[in-house]
Amino acid sequence: GARLAPKEKLDIPVLFTPDTMKMYEAVVVIHVMRENGENWPYEDSEELNKDLKSVIVAENGGLQEILWIYPVHGIPEAVQQKLVPAVICCQARQKVERRVEVPLTGVVPGATPIPATRKSAMANINSPANTQDEIQHTDGLCTTVEFVYELQYQSNEIKSQLESLVGMHLVEREQDTESGIITLIFNTVFAPNKPMRNEATLVVQCTTGGVWKFPMLFIAMEPEVDDVINIEAVGLNKESIVGFNLTSQTR
Question: Per the database record, which ranges form the CFAP47-like immunoglobulin-like domain (predicted)?
Answer without folding.
Answer: 78-220
